[in-house]
Amino acid sequence: MPTPPATLSNWTNHARDEYGDILGRPPSDQEMRQLLRLWAKYSAKAFLNARGRWQLKVEVSSKHSHRKLWLVAGEHQGEWLLWTVFEVG
Amino acid sequence: MILGISPKIAEEHSLRETLDAYLLGGEWRWAGWGCITRLTISRAELQECLTRISESRLAPFLERAGLTGRLSDMPEEELRERALRLRCYLAEPDDPSEALLARLRTIAALSRLLFSALEQETNLLELKRALRPLQKSLASVAPELHPLCYSIAEHLARIGEHSPEDPRQLRSETTHLSIEWLNRLYAYWRAVLG
ipTM for the complex? Predict the structure, then answer.
Protein backbone atom coordinates (compact mmCIF):
# COMPACT_ATOMS: atom_id res chain seq x y z
CA MET A 1 0.00 0.00 0.00
CA PRO A 2 1.68 3.28 -1.06
CA THR A 3 1.85 6.07 1.48
CA PRO A 4 1.54 9.78 0.76
CA PRO A 5 4.56 12.06 1.04
CA ALA A 6 4.74 13.51 4.56
CA THR A 7 6.16 16.77 3.27
CA LEU A 8 6.45 18.61 -0.03
CA SER A 9 9.76 20.24 -0.86
CA ASN A 10 8.44 22.97 -3.14
CA TRP A 11 5.64 24.05 -5.47
CA THR A 12 5.38 24.21 -9.27
CA ASN A 13 5.00 27.54 -11.05
CA HIS A 14 1.63 26.21 -12.15
CA ALA A 15 0.47 25.68 -8.55
CA ARG A 16 1.46 29.25 -7.82
CA ASP A 17 -0.50 30.51 -10.86
CA GLU A 18 -3.56 28.50 -9.80
CA TYR A 19 -3.46 29.79 -6.25
CA GLY A 20 -3.12 33.29 -7.68
CA ASP A 21 -6.28 32.73 -9.73
CA ILE A 22 -8.13 31.65 -6.60
CA LEU A 23 -6.91 34.61 -4.55
CA GLY A 24 -7.30 37.10 -7.39
CA ARG A 25 -3.69 38.26 -6.92
CA PRO A 26 -0.22 36.66 -6.94
CA PRO A 27 0.37 34.75 -3.70
CA SER A 28 3.41 35.58 -1.60
CA ASP A 29 6.07 32.96 -0.83
CA GLN A 30 4.72 32.94 2.70
CA GLU A 31 1.24 32.03 1.45
CA MET A 32 2.69 29.24 -0.70
CA ARG A 33 4.67 27.94 2.28
CA GLN A 34 1.46 27.94 4.30
CA LEU A 35 0.04 25.41 1.80
CA LEU A 36 3.12 23.20 2.22
CA ARG A 37 2.69 23.39 6.00
CA LEU A 38 -0.96 22.39 5.68
CA TRP A 39 0.10 19.44 3.55
CA ALA A 40 2.60 18.37 6.21
CA LYS A 41 -0.07 18.69 8.89
CA TYR A 42 -2.76 16.66 7.11
CA SER A 43 -0.72 14.42 4.79
CA ALA A 44 -1.97 11.28 6.51
CA LYS A 45 -5.43 12.06 5.07
CA ALA A 46 -4.19 12.23 1.47
CA PHE A 47 -5.50 9.76 -1.10
CA LEU A 48 -4.34 8.76 -4.55
CA ASN A 49 -6.49 10.42 -7.18
CA ALA A 50 -7.46 8.88 -10.54
CA ARG A 51 -4.27 10.22 -12.13
CA GLY A 52 -2.02 8.66 -9.52
CA ARG A 53 -1.27 11.89 -7.66
CA TRP A 54 -1.75 12.44 -3.95
CA GLN A 55 -4.55 14.77 -3.02
CA LEU A 56 -6.12 16.22 0.11
CA LYS A 57 -8.52 18.92 1.18
CA VAL A 58 -7.50 21.71 3.55
CA GLU A 59 -9.04 24.84 4.97
CA VAL A 60 -7.14 28.07 4.66
CA SER A 61 -8.22 30.96 6.84
CA SER A 62 -7.04 34.52 6.80
CA LYS A 63 -8.43 37.78 8.20
CA HIS A 64 -10.55 38.28 5.11
CA SER A 65 -11.46 34.84 3.85
CA HIS A 66 -11.97 31.21 4.58
CA ARG A 67 -11.41 28.76 1.76
CA LYS A 68 -11.62 25.02 1.26
CA LEU A 69 -8.86 24.02 -1.14
CA TRP A 70 -7.80 20.80 -2.75
CA LEU A 71 -4.03 20.34 -2.81
CA VAL A 72 -2.50 17.95 -5.33
CA ALA A 73 1.06 16.63 -4.97
CA GLY A 74 3.15 15.19 -7.79
CA GLU A 75 6.64 13.79 -8.07
CA HIS A 76 9.18 15.44 -10.34
CA GLN A 77 12.80 14.26 -10.57
CA GLY A 78 12.57 12.52 -7.23
CA GLU A 79 11.07 15.50 -5.42
CA TRP A 80 7.53 15.83 -4.13
CA LEU A 81 6.00 19.12 -5.23
CA LEU A 82 2.73 20.90 -4.74
CA TRP A 83 1.50 20.21 -8.28
CA THR A 84 -1.70 22.24 -8.39
CA VAL A 85 -4.41 23.75 -6.19
CA PHE A 86 -8.11 24.13 -6.80
CA GLU A 87 -11.34 25.25 -5.23
CA VAL A 88 -14.72 23.92 -6.32
CA GLY A 89 -16.93 26.84 -5.37
CA MET B 1 -42.25 11.74 -37.14
CA ILE B 2 -42.86 9.90 -33.89
CA LEU B 3 -44.80 6.68 -34.36
CA GLY B 4 -47.95 6.05 -32.31
CA ILE B 5 -48.64 9.61 -31.16
CA SER B 6 -50.90 12.29 -32.55
CA PRO B 7 -49.46 14.93 -34.90
CA LYS B 8 -50.20 17.65 -32.30
CA ILE B 9 -48.22 15.91 -29.59
CA ALA B 10 -45.47 15.15 -32.09
CA GLU B 11 -45.36 18.86 -32.96
CA GLU B 12 -44.95 19.82 -29.32
CA HIS B 13 -42.28 17.19 -28.89
CA SER B 14 -40.45 18.62 -31.86
CA LEU B 15 -40.79 22.14 -30.41
CA ARG B 16 -39.17 20.93 -27.17
CA GLU B 17 -36.28 19.46 -29.13
CA THR B 18 -35.90 22.63 -31.16
CA LEU B 19 -35.82 24.79 -28.04
CA ASP B 20 -33.35 22.45 -26.34
CA ALA B 21 -31.00 22.40 -29.32
CA TYR B 22 -31.18 26.19 -29.59
CA LEU B 23 -30.69 26.86 -25.87
CA LEU B 24 -28.02 24.22 -25.25
CA GLY B 25 -26.11 24.90 -28.47
CA GLY B 26 -26.84 21.46 -29.85
CA GLU B 27 -28.21 18.06 -29.08
CA TRP B 28 -26.74 14.61 -29.73
CA ARG B 29 -28.72 12.42 -32.12
CA TRP B 30 -28.27 8.76 -32.94
CA ALA B 31 -27.69 8.53 -36.67
CA GLY B 32 -27.70 4.75 -36.97
CA TRP B 33 -24.79 2.30 -36.95
CA GLY B 34 -23.73 3.67 -33.58
CA CYS B 35 -22.93 7.10 -35.05
CA ILE B 36 -23.86 10.28 -33.24
CA THR B 37 -24.51 13.56 -34.97
CA ARG B 38 -25.04 16.95 -33.46
CA LEU B 39 -28.36 18.66 -34.13
CA THR B 40 -28.04 22.44 -34.17
CA ILE B 41 -30.78 24.99 -34.53
CA SER B 42 -30.20 28.47 -35.90
CA ARG B 43 -32.09 31.51 -34.73
CA ALA B 44 -33.98 31.61 -38.06
CA GLU B 45 -35.08 27.99 -37.63
CA LEU B 46 -36.26 28.72 -34.11
CA GLN B 47 -38.26 31.74 -35.28
CA GLU B 48 -39.84 29.66 -38.06
CA CYS B 49 -40.81 27.02 -35.56
CA LEU B 50 -42.35 29.62 -33.21
CA THR B 51 -44.36 31.10 -36.10
CA ARG B 52 -45.68 27.62 -36.94
CA ILE B 53 -47.07 27.12 -33.44
CA SER B 54 -48.44 30.64 -33.01
CA GLU B 55 -51.94 29.40 -33.94
CA SER B 56 -51.79 26.26 -31.82
CA ARG B 57 -52.95 25.61 -28.23
CA LEU B 58 -49.53 26.88 -27.18
CA ALA B 59 -50.29 30.46 -28.31
CA PRO B 60 -51.01 31.69 -24.72
CA PHE B 61 -47.63 30.33 -23.59
CA LEU B 62 -45.86 32.06 -26.46
CA GLU B 63 -47.51 35.26 -25.30
CA ARG B 64 -46.59 34.71 -21.65
CA ALA B 65 -43.01 34.04 -22.67
CA GLY B 66 -42.97 37.23 -24.76
CA LEU B 67 -42.41 35.38 -28.00
CA THR B 68 -44.98 37.10 -30.20
CA GLY B 69 -44.58 39.94 -32.68
CA ARG B 70 -41.35 40.76 -34.51
CA LEU B 71 -38.72 38.47 -33.12
CA SER B 72 -36.10 39.27 -35.72
CA ASP B 73 -35.27 42.61 -34.03
CA MET B 74 -34.89 41.09 -30.59
CA PRO B 75 -31.32 40.87 -29.20
CA GLU B 76 -30.02 37.31 -29.00
CA GLU B 77 -29.74 37.28 -25.21
CA GLU B 78 -33.35 38.44 -24.84
CA LEU B 79 -34.62 35.85 -27.29
CA ARG B 80 -32.76 33.13 -25.42
CA GLU B 81 -34.24 34.24 -22.12
CA ARG B 82 -37.77 34.13 -23.54
CA ALA B 83 -37.16 30.79 -25.25
CA LEU B 84 -36.04 29.44 -21.88
CA ARG B 85 -39.31 30.62 -20.29
CA LEU B 86 -41.29 28.91 -23.05
CA ARG B 87 -39.30 25.72 -22.50
CA CYS B 88 -40.24 25.87 -18.80
CA TYR B 89 -43.94 26.37 -19.66
CA LEU B 90 -43.82 23.24 -21.83
CA ALA B 91 -42.65 21.31 -18.77
CA GLU B 92 -45.03 22.95 -16.29
CA PRO B 93 -47.66 25.55 -17.22
CA ASP B 94 -46.85 27.67 -14.18
CA ASP B 95 -44.34 30.51 -13.93
CA PRO B 96 -40.85 29.13 -13.31
CA SER B 97 -39.10 30.30 -10.15
CA GLU B 98 -36.11 32.63 -10.45
CA ALA B 99 -33.98 29.91 -8.86
CA LEU B 100 -34.95 27.41 -11.56
CA LEU B 101 -34.34 29.95 -14.31
CA ALA B 102 -30.90 30.76 -12.87
CA ARG B 103 -29.98 27.05 -12.83
CA LEU B 104 -31.17 26.41 -16.35
CA ARG B 105 -29.55 29.62 -17.65
CA THR B 106 -26.17 28.58 -16.27
CA ILE B 107 -26.51 25.03 -17.57
CA ALA B 108 -27.43 26.31 -21.03
CA ALA B 109 -24.49 28.74 -21.09
CA LEU B 110 -22.10 25.96 -20.03
CA SER B 111 -23.50 23.62 -22.63
CA ARG B 112 -23.19 26.19 -25.44
CA LEU B 113 -19.61 26.92 -24.42
CA LEU B 114 -18.66 23.22 -24.38
CA PHE B 115 -20.33 22.50 -27.73
CA SER B 116 -18.59 25.45 -29.32
CA ALA B 117 -15.22 24.51 -27.76
CA LEU B 118 -15.54 20.98 -29.14
CA GLU B 119 -16.47 22.23 -32.58
CA GLN B 120 -13.85 24.95 -32.84
CA GLU B 121 -11.15 23.13 -30.87
CA THR B 122 -10.80 26.19 -28.66
CA ASN B 123 -7.40 26.83 -27.14
CA LEU B 124 -7.32 25.25 -23.68
CA LEU B 125 -6.35 28.46 -21.88
CA GLU B 126 -9.23 30.32 -23.50
CA LEU B 127 -11.61 27.50 -22.64
CA LYS B 128 -10.44 27.58 -19.04
CA ARG B 129 -10.91 31.36 -18.80
CA ALA B 130 -14.48 31.06 -20.10
CA LEU B 131 -15.38 27.88 -18.22
CA ARG B 132 -14.17 28.72 -14.73
CA PRO B 133 -16.66 31.52 -13.93
CA LEU B 134 -19.52 29.36 -15.23
CA GLN B 135 -18.37 26.43 -13.10
CA LYS B 136 -18.33 28.73 -10.05
CA SER B 137 -21.84 30.00 -10.84
CA LEU B 138 -23.08 26.46 -11.32
CA ALA B 139 -21.75 25.49 -7.89
CA SER B 140 -23.73 28.33 -6.35
CA VAL B 141 -27.02 28.01 -8.28
CA ALA B 142 -27.14 24.20 -8.46
CA PRO B 143 -25.45 22.74 -5.37
CA GLU B 144 -26.88 19.33 -6.28
CA LEU B 145 -24.46 19.37 -9.23
CA HIS B 146 -21.43 19.72 -6.93
CA PRO B 147 -19.79 16.49 -8.14
CA LEU B 148 -19.96 17.80 -11.72
CA CYS B 149 -18.51 21.14 -10.56
CA TYR B 150 -15.74 19.19 -8.81
CA SER B 151 -14.90 17.32 -12.02
CA ILE B 152 -14.68 20.58 -13.97
CA ALA B 153 -12.64 22.38 -11.28
CA GLU B 154 -10.26 19.43 -10.90
CA HIS B 155 -9.58 19.28 -14.61
CA LEU B 156 -9.24 23.04 -15.09
CA ALA B 157 -6.61 23.06 -12.32
CA ARG B 158 -4.39 21.01 -14.65
CA ILE B 159 -4.56 23.57 -17.47
CA GLY B 160 -2.32 26.63 -17.43
CA GLU B 161 0.48 28.52 -19.08
CA HIS B 162 3.05 26.79 -16.85
CA SER B 163 1.21 23.50 -16.52
CA PRO B 164 3.59 20.57 -16.06
CA GLU B 165 1.09 18.25 -17.82
CA ASP B 166 1.65 16.76 -21.28
CA PRO B 167 -0.25 19.18 -23.59
CA ARG B 168 -1.38 16.47 -26.02
CA GLN B 169 -2.77 14.29 -23.29
CA LEU B 170 -4.42 17.31 -21.69
CA ARG B 171 -6.09 18.21 -24.99
CA SER B 172 -7.40 14.69 -25.49
CA GLU B 173 -8.65 14.40 -21.90
CA THR B 174 -10.34 17.81 -22.22
CA THR B 175 -12.24 16.62 -25.29
CA HIS B 176 -13.27 13.41 -23.59
CA LEU B 177 -14.35 15.21 -20.41
CA SER B 178 -16.21 17.95 -22.29
CA ILE B 179 -18.39 15.27 -23.88
CA GLU B 180 -18.95 13.68 -20.47
CA TRP B 181 -19.87 17.04 -18.90
CA LEU B 182 -22.25 17.78 -21.78
CA ASN B 183 -23.97 14.45 -21.23
CA ARG B 184 -24.33 15.12 -17.50
CA LEU B 185 -25.71 18.63 -18.11
CA TYR B 186 -28.11 17.29 -20.70
CA ALA B 187 -29.28 14.49 -18.40
CA TYR B 188 -29.99 17.04 -15.66
CA TRP B 189 -31.79 19.35 -18.11
CA ARG B 190 -33.98 16.48 -19.32
CA ALA B 191 -34.65 15.29 -15.77
CA VAL B 192 -35.94 18.77 -14.86
CA LEU B 193 -37.74 19.68 -18.07
CA GLY B 194 -38.62 16.32 -19.60
Answer: 0.94
